[in-house]
Design brief:
Distance between the termini: 39 Å
Strand order of the largest sheet: 3-2-1-4-5-6-7-14
Shape: globular
CATH topology of the largest domain: Rossmann fold
Structural class: alpha/beta
CATH class of the largest domain: Alpha Beta
CATH architecture of the largest domain: 3-Layer(aba) Sandwich
Number of helices: 16
Helix content: 40-55%
Number of strands: 14
Length: 389
């Protein structure tokens, strides 16, 4: 019996881990163990995602202090792994819980599998970038979601036989739940859709990264750009708790003074997907939102100077517009006037990534028969030099 211990702790982690857990539960030779690191610990930020995505109650729940570092989480994870003795530890994404899980396993000599490996923004100021690089360095199996990630791993000297192009597990979840999400009543509840079902154009904004919201001057400029866009179409802004605090500090959290920006609390997964899917435009600093909008072919403006997910720009609907108000407003007006990138859904973003990953895990660490849908091992000629960043 292959025992796979998975560590997750944030809303994006749960979206990524859900299809992997479901696939492992379907495999008679696999025993999944889920550890909730507690990084997002309340119902609004994690509990509702577990319920909506059909994730069983975690086997273990940790309670670190808010904003705990990977080093602070690691001792409890290490002790838990020592007791559970898994064959492999599975981590997803790039948050503190991801690195903490990888470090704890590495100390004990347990193989680590990293899902969403190889993504790079090449921005050393991003905490997530350091987490990605360190997690990949500790991992035995590296599951990439796009070819650029494969190129990055090869350029960093990772062994080719440990790298697998598996596709995007976030899109597995989106594929499974999109039809259900489209039945959500969130648009009516937010006053966007009339009772008759008439749906006017609107935009969606999300901001949460320190580079976007922690500097009052930067946040103020971005907010001014959102207000200009909101003068043309309503802007719905589900507010992350850290962003809510920054808006409050800057005097921008009063809904009455928002000038067309409709502030809401964090939304459950199905409500947010519905909001994204019907939007004329999404403005974000979130990597996952870049991917979801690409898969749904919804125009997306990334309010950053870089992205670790370049396939959303090269093939999808995403544009990198930076943080200057004039550029944000000009790009938004172009989209709203009909200059829309149709884009395409990237290869292997097909709803079967989790199946490929679990099959590959079984092939490496389990005793099951040869799987039929393993992730794609990278042959020597698969990544041309131009793709290596």
């Amino acid at each position: 019996m292959l025992k796979v211990l998975s560590v997750a702790g944030t809303r994006p982690n749960f979206v990524k881990i859900a299809p992997l857990l479901a696939e492992m539960r379907r495999c008679p030779g696999v025993r999944p163990v889920l550890v909730h690191s507690g990084q997002h610990f309340d119902r609004e930020m994690s509990g509702c995602f577990l319920d909506e995505l059909g994730i069983p109650a975690p086997d273990f729940v940790l309670r670190p202090r808010p904003s705990a570092s990977p080093g602070e989480m690691m001792p409890a994870l290490r002790e838990l792994m020592r007791n559970e003795r898994p064959h492999v530890v599975l981590v997803v994404g790039d948050v503190n819980s991801t690195l903490a899980g990888a470090e704890a396993a590495a100390v004990l000599g347990i193989p680590v599998a990293h899902v969403e490996a190889g993504l790079r923004s090449f921005d050393s100021g991003m905490p997530e970038e350091a987490n990605r690089i360190a997690t990949d360095a500790l991992s035995s199996l590296l599951f990439a979601s796009e070819p650029s990630a494969v190129g990055n791993l090869l350029a960093e000297g990772r062994p080719r036989n440990r790298i697998f192009l598996a596709g995007n597990v976030m899109i597995d979840t989106l594929t499974q739940f999109l039809a259900v999400a489209r039945r959500s009543t969130v648009l009516a509840r937010l006053g966007i859709a009339a009772e008759s079902g008439t749906l006017p154009r609107y935009a969606v904004a999300t901001l949460h990264r320190p580079a976007t919201v922690d500097d009052p001057a930067v946040l103020g400029r971005v907010w001014g750009a959102l207000e200009e866009v909101a003068a043309e179409v309503p802007v719905v802004f589900p507010v992350h708790p850290r962003t809510q605090a920054r808006l409050r500090d800057c005097g921008l959290a009063d809904p009455d003074a928002a000038r067309g920006i409709r502030l809401t609390g964090p939304l459950p997964y199905l409500d947010f997907v519905r909001l994204e899917s019907a939007a004329a435009l999404v403005m974000t600093d979130s990597g996952g939102v870049q991917e979801e909008t690409t898969a749904m072919r919804v125009p997306c403006l990334t309010l950053r100077n870089n992205t670790e997910r370049p396939i959303t720009v090269h093939e999808g609907t995403n544009q990198i517009v930076g943080l200057e108000p004039a550029a944000i407003v000009a790009a938004a007006r172009a989209v709203l006037s009909g200059s829309v990138r149709i884009g395409r859904v990237p290869r292997l973003w097909d709803g079967r990534s989790a199946r490929r990953i679990v099959s590959t895990l079984c092939r490496h660490y389990g005793s099951r028969r040869e799987p039929v849908a393993s992730a794609i091992r990278i042959p020597a000629q698969a990544v041309p030099a131009a793709a290596v960043c």
